[in-house]
Amino acid sequence: MTETSMYLQRLLDENRPAFAYTAETDWKIWRSGLKDRLARRLGLHPVQAYSRTTPEEPAYAGASFAPEEPPVVRERVQCQGYVRERVEWATMDGMRMPVYVLIPDGVKEGRPGIVAIHGHGYGSREIVGLEPDGSEREATPGLHKDFAVELVQQGFVVAAPELLAFGDRRLPEDIAAGPKQSSCGRISAHLMLLGRNIGGVRVAETMQTVGYLLSRPEVKPGAIGCMGISGGGLVAAYTAALDERIGATVVSGYANTFRDSILTRMHCLDNYIPGILQDAEMPELIGLIAPRSVLVESGESDRVFPREGAMKAMEKLAMIYEAAGAEEELAVDYFAGGHEISGAKAYEWLRRLE
Questions:
Q1: Model confidence pLDDT, tens digit, residues 100-127
Q2: Closest to 161 measured CA to CA, from 239, 78, 82, 105
Q3: Which of 61, 66, 137, 154 has the fewest beta carbons closer than 10 A?
Q4: If residue 173 lies in a helix (H) or strand (E), which one and from where to where?
Q5: Which are the contacts of 272, defined by CB distance < 8 A and separation ≥ 6?
Q6: pTM of structure
């Protein structure tokens, strides 16, 4: 260990998160305080208000869906067993976000809506069975396993937003470099210098996607879930932590501790929320979802978010869910795979929204 690595380790060891959760913690007070801190770290406070689940809940951005212009349907394709729409609307600061919406054939109303959030790769097309150019993919899917398609085939109405810095939402030089070259680093650094961060933008836009789903006649009122992989798992977890309308969440290939994952190697810059470790470790942030449902997926050979850290996270989450009186709303799928979607338990888990 070099002097520099010893310095970093000492900073980590001496850090005392303000909202570290212990057996003696008052869960309600802790949750309210940390929820507010997470919103502030993401740049979502102060923000526009929205209708809240209870009067004491703080107000966060993006809950109501009221864009300045109506959403535009760019394409509508009949697929096998479902319709795929590509919808676009203005989200914030003049930006526009494309979203794939998948609707099971024959569904007019009464189905749960799921926000499906891709991880690193070539964007939303990667989870809806398409090539980067929008053509139908015939090759075997990668780590995402076309989970948005799997969800619609299970009977859910699915919205798959294109996260900022991926797909069509990249900088010109990254588009020229190829479909898998993201703009995460450049955009993250730019936002940080302005006191903002890309995680906050993505969470706010995902909240808007929740509002959009609730505006669809096919979606059952109050029945919203969220599922994300890797960097999309970050967005799913922190959106669900702040947005009480999300009743069930699947966090795949992300739930861990910062100490055992993010701080063990150089991750994409979009994983870094400035100052967050001064407030809490990752499982405590995910624990803000309680008492609502959360399922964690962890691959045995995942080297990005290792199993050991995932198990530590589950121990802390179990403590939080017990304090919330919601032990049955927490589950884990430890599967024999790597950094990838499992799905073995996830789709059935989301049926609790029905």
A1: 999 999 999 999 999 999 999 999 999 9
A2: 239
A3: 66
A4: helix 172-177
A5: 188, 197, 262
A6: 0.95
